[in-house]
Amino acid sequence: MSTLSLVDLIPLLPKVLLHDHLDGGLRPQTVLDLAADAGHTLPASTADDLADWFESAANSGSLVRYLETFEHTVAVMQTADALRRVAREAVLDLAADSVVYAEQRWAPELHLEQGLTMQEVVDAVQAGLAEGMEEARAAGLPIRVQQVLIAIRNADRWEEVAALAVANRDRGVCGFDLAGAEDGYLPERFPQVWDRLAAANFPRTVHAGEAAGVESISQAVHLARADRLGHGVRIVEDIDFVASPGQGWEEAASATLGPLANWVRDHQIVLEASPCSNLMTGAVADARTMDRHPITRLKELDFAVTVNTDNRLMSRTSMSHEFQRLVVEADWTIDDIADVTIAAAWGAFIHHDERRALVEEVIVPGFQRLTGVQL
User: Considering the entire predicted model, what is its pTM?
Assistant: First the structure.
């Protein structure tokens, strides 16, 4: 299969998306519409100009600067109607990109300015997801989308959000996440939260290894007992790559894993890598092009690597766009795409039998039908 034909085929391939922020994936026109309703001033007045602004502002090489762009999306998501619209459109946009399973993560505590309770915002998002799934199914694009609730790591509502997530486990919420300013706000701030989630047998993912390094990943894995790592790409800091003079780590002939890297790989803790976002935020030192992003090397070393979008608006991306860049710029093949898609399905916050059905009844047949490749 040629690179050109694979690039053209990617939009049709079934995809699994584990790491996508609801407030980072709004349509530019929706931001404009909701801002007009809310009386919120935006930095641009047309959808195209606003899309350009988000991408430019986010592409700073700094996670802190990247996160500042959320001021505008969160500001327009303060009513039940707005939340429902954003959630519905997210589902439809993902389904149009052949995503068959997705988890939308977001922080309920950021959407209370108009008097909604956290349960009410969860209900509004779930209503929008349900509407989107029904519309997508009617259009012949079946997709399952669930919520992952985020606690903001530099705020103090971790326990409240954890309790909310567990209380809604049978109403569309499948996991808990810790996100926000990673450096300086590690899982040790509220250790009791992790005990509570473990006692409830509730899945958790933690943003770690994006803006902070090995210590952040270690706490996410051992203290938070994370099933998955949000990004996690700085695990490469615990790997000793041996390269010839003039070569970079991505060309290293050998690699020796440190204790933490071995633990993450041995336990197949899923890495929710988001290549375009990682390059924009400077998540990995000296990695500003796709061929230098560590995802390819980590995959070659048998880490449980997945590909994600993180924030489709800010990074101006989609799952197809992420894969197309990996094919064109990092020489990925159809086998690479299939491998990470299946890894994502097995890492989804659903039960084992549901994961197996997703792999065996949706992903594998979809790839074989479109490519002829036997998985």
Answer: 0.94
